[in-house]
Design brief:
Layout: E1 5-16, E2 19-30, E3 34-38, H1 45-53, E4 60-65, E5 68-69, E6 80-83, H2 95-105, H3 110-123, H4 139-151, E7 157-161, H5 169-186, E8 189-194, H6 197-203, E9 206-211, E10 214-219, H7 221-226, H8 231-236, E11 241-249, E12 252-255, E13 258-261, E14 271-277, E15 283-285, E16 292-301, E17 306-312, E18 315-321, E19 330-334, E20 341-344
Parallel strand pairs: 3-8, 3-9, 6-7, 7-8
Antiparallel strand pairs: 1-2, 1-4, 4-5, 9-10, 11-12, 11-14, 12-13, 14-20, 15-19, 16-17, 16-19, 17-18
Helix pairs in contact: 2-3, 2-4, 3-4
Length: 349
């Protein structure tokens, strides 16, 4: 029986001199999955992608592709293609010639090349652009040509290294949706690298959050956002209020001297914990109705909502709401159990 995964990284580490870019990475990628490696600069995500593509060799560990060890297989012999942030298109070739380049090297027949390129141009919404010079295309159009050139060789996996990074915000958002639709239509595995949290949440089936060469959490976009495993993930994905709490018992946590019902369990009695509450999950009510009380110290209009800071005791709460309360307003804050996420405190070594 064929396994559901196509790539498996087993105990992969990578050193550059004395610097360890990856530390014992274990990760499998399913067939036809849109998986995103997400994290800040220097976290190891691009190194992971380059090891999968064969452009870097791991210091330790194996790269398994369809149950075969390809750790020592060169890039051109892998059924994996890559689209880089710098699209590396050939400026002296037109759109058709750029897309057909790999097929010509393989000595595919002219009629098959023509059919394959025509299909790709339709897939990336560039029909009629065959004879256009590369310099005449916009950034978004060049990006589509780069994707078509990679896909025309029928790889089983497409690697994308921050391919939308050079595009403006509106175009980037449009291309996010197009890429996702394209991936579903052709039914191959996409492994995508980005530092943009919104991009990862929008496009992915699975998100792999990385920091300092290690995987911090793997999950669906909903899981990663709603159930962060640690403080790094909570702060990196979206925005969070992270405050000290005491877990008195299963489903009971104390925050700022107030006892709240929550949905977490399995902690020691009266264990000190970190409590994560998203800014959009705090309901503003009257001071009398609130579980916690605060005073608004700043208000910023963000377009779809207001972002307010409310001082309560020695903690500054970030609140996002369509209801605006002015600076100096006394407010109450209400938080339902499902919106209170409890995490174990990280012990410093």
């Amino acid at each position: 029986m064929e396994k559901n995964w196509i790539i498996d990284l087993v105990g992969v580490s990578k050193k550059f001199g004395e610097s360890e870019a990856l530390k014992d990475i274990n990760l499998y990628v399913r067939r036809n999955e849109f998986l995103t490696l997400l994290g800040p600069s220097g976290c190891g995500k691009t190194t992971t992608l380059r090891i999968i593509g064969g452009f870097e060799h791991p210091t330790k560990g194996k790269v398994i592709f369809e149950e075969k060890d390809i750790t020592d297989v060169p890039p051109y012999q892998r059924q994996i293609n890559t689209v880089f942030q710098k699209y590396a298109l050939f400026p002296h070739l037109n759109v058709f010639e750029n897309i057909a380049f790999g097929l010509k090297i393989k000595k595919i027949s002219k009629s098959e090349i023509r059919d394959s390129v025509s299909y790709m141009l339709k897939l990336v919404n560039l029909e009629g652009f065959e004879k256009r010079p590369i310099e005449s295309l916009s950034g978004g159009q060049q990006q589509r040509v780069a994707i078509a050139r990679a896909l025309v060789n029928k790889p089983k996996v497409l690697l994308l290294d921050e391919p939308l990074g050079a595009l403006d915000l509106k175009l980037r958002k449009g291309m996010q949706l197009e890429l996702k639709k394209m991936q579903k239509r052709i039914g191959i595995t996409f492994i995508y690298v980005t530092h943009d949290q919104e991009e990862a949440l929008t496009m992915s089936d699975t998100v792999v959050v990385m920091d300092k060469g290690k995987i911090q959490q793997i999950g669906t976009p909903v899981d990663i956002y709603n159930e962060p495993k640690n403080i790094f993930v909570a702060n990196f994905i979206g925005e969070s209020n992270v405050i000290d709490g005491i877990m008195h018992d299963d489903f009971i946590v104390e925050i700022q001297g107030v006892v709240f019902d929550c949905v977490d369990k399995g902690f020691d009695k009266d264990e000190a914990v970190d409590v994560v509450i998203r800014p959009e999950d705090i309901e503003i009510v009257s001071a009398e109705e609130g579980q916690l009380k605060g005073k608004i110290t700043s208000v910023t209009f963000k377009g779809v909502h207001y972002e307010m800071i409310a001082e309560s005791g020695n903690f500054s709460w970030k609140i996002q709401s369509t209801v605006m309360k002015p600076v100096d307003a006394e407010i109450g804050m209400k938080i339902i159990p499902e919106n209170i996420h409890i995490m174990k405190k990280v012990k410093n070594n």
